[in-house]
Write a structure and sequence with these properties.
The protein is mainly α and about 210 residues long. It is built from six helices and four strands. The strands form two sheets. It has a two-stranded antiparallel ribbon with strand order 1-2. It has a two-stranded antiparallel ribbon with strand order 3-4. α1 (about 10-25) runs antiparallel to α2. It is elongated, with a radius of gyration of 20 Å. The two termini are about 30 Å apart.
């Protein structure tokens, strides 16, 4: 395995920025997200197949380019295409998939508690209501700005002016939606449910380690 998504502040910021940008562009409802060093899991509620395809193309394409630049990887980034697993609308099925996403990093015995994972994990955001922030770097805008700066310099016969990287960085906040079966519950009740699931996951993992 290539650990191209290994946790770091830069990778975390990049990942949320890319997904947050895609969420704004395509209006995707995201219920959960966990990122490991080699792959990630998202629990999505798409409106249709076209929305899902556009969203995933944007996410995976930009992650491959930006994370590849960040870690100096020039080869193929993803080993294979993403796998979409349809979920039955029954509450039990939805809650089971949420539990699975939340269990990542714990079930692999990477950490004893989800709060110890240095990468992205939605548990804290779902339980404490802490937003997930990231940065989108607009390379298209940067390219156009540099092109215009080059043209101005050519007309004036001067050196090309420096273009600030900060001018093309846009902050994004990833918005997490409740499961469809929890939409009528008050936020406090949803946070409690997620906290209970995480507590169960951690306790079960601790028991497995003892055995």
């Amino acid at each position: 395995n290539r650990y191209l998504l290994r946790p770091s502040e830069e990778v975390n910021d990049l990942f949320v920025g890319v997904v947050g940008r895609a969420q704004e562009l395509y209006g995707m409802r995201i219920c959960a997200l966990t990122v490991l060093s080699t792959h990630y899991h998202m629990l999505l509620i798409p409106e249709d197949a076209e929305q899902l395809a556009d969203f995933m193309e944007h996410v995976n394409g930009n992650l491959a380019r930006e994370a590849g630049r960040l870690v100096g990887w020039r080869g193929r980034f993803w080993r294979e295409r993403c796998h979409g697993i349809p979920i039955s609308p029954e509450p039990e099925a939805l809650e089971s998939r949420l539990r699975y996403v939340l269990s990542n990093t714990i079930k692999e015995n990477l950490v004893a508690r989800v709060s110890q994972w240095e990468g992205l994990h939605c548990a804290e955001a779902l339980i404490d209501g802490k937003p997930m922030h990231g940065t989108w770097y607009d390379r298209s805008l940067e390219y156009e700005a540099k092109r215009q700066a080059g043209r101005r310099a050519a007309r004036r016969g001067t050196a090309v002016e420096e273009v600030s990287r900060a001018a093309f960085m846009q902050p994004y906040e990833l918005k997490l939606a409740p499961l469809p079966c929890w939409q009528k519950l008050p936020p406090a009740a949803i946070r409690k449910k997620v906290a209970e699931i995480v507590t169960e996951i951690e306790a079960e993992a601790a028991e497995r380690r003892k055995k």
